[in-house]
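Fig. S4 source data, part A: sequence.
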Amino acid sequence: MHTSFAGKRITVGVTGSIAAFKVAGWVSTLAKEEAQVTVIMTDSACRFVTPLTFAALSGERVHTNLFSKEDAETIPHIYLARETDLVVIAPATAQTIARLAHGMADDLLACTVLATQAKVLVFPAMNTQMYRHPAVQENISKLKELGYQVIEPESGRMACKQEGAGRLPEWELAREALLQNLATQDLAGEKILVTAGPTREPLDPARFLSNRSSGKMGYSLARTAQRRGADVTLISGPTTLPLPPGVSCVRVEIASEMADAVLSRCRLASVIVKAAAVCDFRPVASFAEKVKKEQASLQLSLEQTQDILQELGSIKEEAGFLLVGFAAESKEHAVEGQKKLTKKNLDLIAINDIHSAHTGFEADSNQVSLLDKNGINHLPLVSKEQTADLIWDHVVKMLEEKNRE
């Protein structure tokens, strides 16, 4: 199963900081996610982690010398600059930042950066007093003016035992920065509203009605839309998932809260994706105190919750947004999907089989069929993140068609 990094050529420039050991983990993960990783190390970096370590983790030769005899005929910095989709400098020391800010070309990494036309991401990592020094801050400002993207360091306890800004970010945040810079910004300017997760309808303080939704599909949709340039609002039921970086989140618990959050924001959106598994029913009566077993009735009266998707479908033409729904079906998937597409007045519906071990609520993979007015398109079995990207590919085409009308 391919990943979002599959086939991408990423050059990682490692400089002389204790945080270099963390970047070894980044390189290992990128290689596992099928990226082609080339590592360039400065002389100082080699004092913290050996080139052999990065060679073993990347599966590729590590480059350290501007005047390598082995590569003399290829002109290493020109070749490396040309054969990459993205340059990542991590950790970026004060020395390297100064070197890049002043356009110096005195080592292999600096020369490669000057020669490349790829985007360059810089991850500063250093002692907090060094990071705050006016000279370093001025150099960081120069990097931004020159078009480099600087990822602000995190705050915390440093290797030098000080507390403050200067820590290299964790991989999850770095991963999003890399993928955003690799992604086509075809959703730039779009305001997208995504719902995710289950709702919980309380019986008493200890019990509730809910479903098996994990929220993974909705969170993947929010994350990938943000990568592609969209302004994303995620309305989430209860989940244990981390919030995607850069995404605004509204947290709700019950179906009526989900309805209020969606309907109060829907007219600001250009695309709404209803991936949440909102409970269809709630108890007619709930209790302020826990119901004891011996006092409980064995019959539970239910009433229907508000049909948020149908309400959105009734106003989408007037409000001007595209409406995408989901159908989790256990049989007759296409038939049930077509019924929902028509009844709810949707522009697109994604149908998946909840019986499959690979496409169920808690799985990390998914295989959906996309159904719209033009017919059905069966997507392959891939990760939920890739499924989200394939759904956005379809939505982008629908937006282009809508704009031509």
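Fig. S4 source data, part B ends here. The chain has two domains: 9-182, 191-282+301-404.
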